[in-house]
Structures are given as C-alpha cells and as structure tokens.
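Re: beginner question about structure tokens

> Can someone show what the tokenized structure looks like for a real chain? I only ever see the sequence side.

Sure, here's an example I had lying around. Input first:
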Amino acid sequence: MSRSPNKNSAPRSFGRRARPALIATALLLAGVGLSLFPSNAEEARAIPAPALDESSGRSSETAVFAGGCFWGVQGVFQHVAGVSNAVSGYAGGEKATAHYETVGSGTTGHAESVRITYDPRKISYGRLLQIYFSVAHDPTQLNRRGPDSGTQYRSAIFPTNAEQAKVARAYIAQLDNAHAFGAPIATRIEPDRAFYAGEAYHQDFLVRNPDYPYIVLNDLPKIEALKRLFQEHYRAKPALVSNAESPER
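And the corresponding structure tokens:
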C-alpha cells in the first residue's frame, strides 16, 4: 500500500490512528452516516486571554506545540492569520528517532508536534497559546488526545526562548487558578528540545484529505471552533507547507 496517503487510502503505518477511521469507513460503505458514529472530537471552549504576553519586536518568530495527532494541530494553525507556516514533525527526542514508525512506539521521548512560524506584529505568542489550549486540543488529558494514547500524543510546549517559557508557565497557572477547565492542565513545558520536520506525506494532511474519516471525526470540528471562537484571527485560506520551502529534516 502506498506510503503517500490520499482520500481513498489509509496506510497501515498510521497505527492506532487508522483504527477508528477504518471503522468509520466500513460504516460509510455499509450506508451508515458519520452522524451515527460517535465522535472523539475534543470539546473547544472559550478561555481568557493570557495576562502576560511576549514583547517581541521582530517580524518572524517560531513556536512549537504538541497536542496529539499533528494533523489537526497543523490544520488549526494553518488557518490562523499571522501564521506563515506550520510544519508537522517531532520534538522531545533525538534526531535519529524522529521518524513516524519509531515515534509511534512511544519510547523515543518524541511527541507529534507542530512548528509554527508567525509574525508577532499580527498575532502574539500568547494568542497562539490561547488558541492551542482552547481549540487545538484538550490540555487536561495525560498522554491521550481523542482516540490516540501514548506519550507521543502528550500535551507539551517546546519554548524556543526564555520569554516563551515564562509566558507559557504564567498562562497555565492563570488558567488553573481560574478553573478554566474541569481538571488541572497536564501540559508539559519542555525547553531546549529540537524540532524535526515530519515526513512529506504528513504535511498539509487535513487540507489534502478533508474526507478522511479520522479528519472528519476529530479535526474538522477544531477548524469550525477556531472560526467561531477566534473570528478576528481566522483565515479561510490555509498557509500550506507545499506553498513554502520544503521543511528540512
């Protein structure tokens, strides 16, 4: 089977992620609508903006977030105005193990992550964090996001500088103190970790495969939530990796 996924294929290497998708596909072939299939989509919610934010005067910065399957996280941030690129990949482990099949073992220290390139003059790091916690994933689950489980799906922030780490810690404390969620935030802050771009077939996956059942069930609701909760930051046309320079592995 092809390693390059499309709307009509589900490569075996997708592991746990493919199982609910294959079930949903079987139901569709049997004439059962997706509306009857229970969704694992994480509930988005309105949360307060961060009281502390970055003070960058530069035109370009990067942020790295992990929040479960990178397809959905990448898809969300590709629709955020001020984001010029969002690349799916891995962070938390070594370069030698930054490969999908290896990361899937849950033993590499890596988390499926997304590196976001953004213009702080148009959207701040704090606002990206607000979208990350509100829309991109449920930050209260430990090593689990929707139908996926394992440390490779953990909620983690990989700050690229000391100020980002400070803003992230302050925001987590702010949200916990405000009881913004029904449970404490489980997101880890992991500084000084390199990011490694993922395989080409994972890039722009949501945009290229909007009918793929996993995307329909788990990730398209996140795009709708972004549009609803962050109207002023929502951009209909996504910033695609395929339109930018190829990410270096």
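Each token stands for a local structural state, so reading them left to right follows the chain. The longest strand covers residues 83-91.
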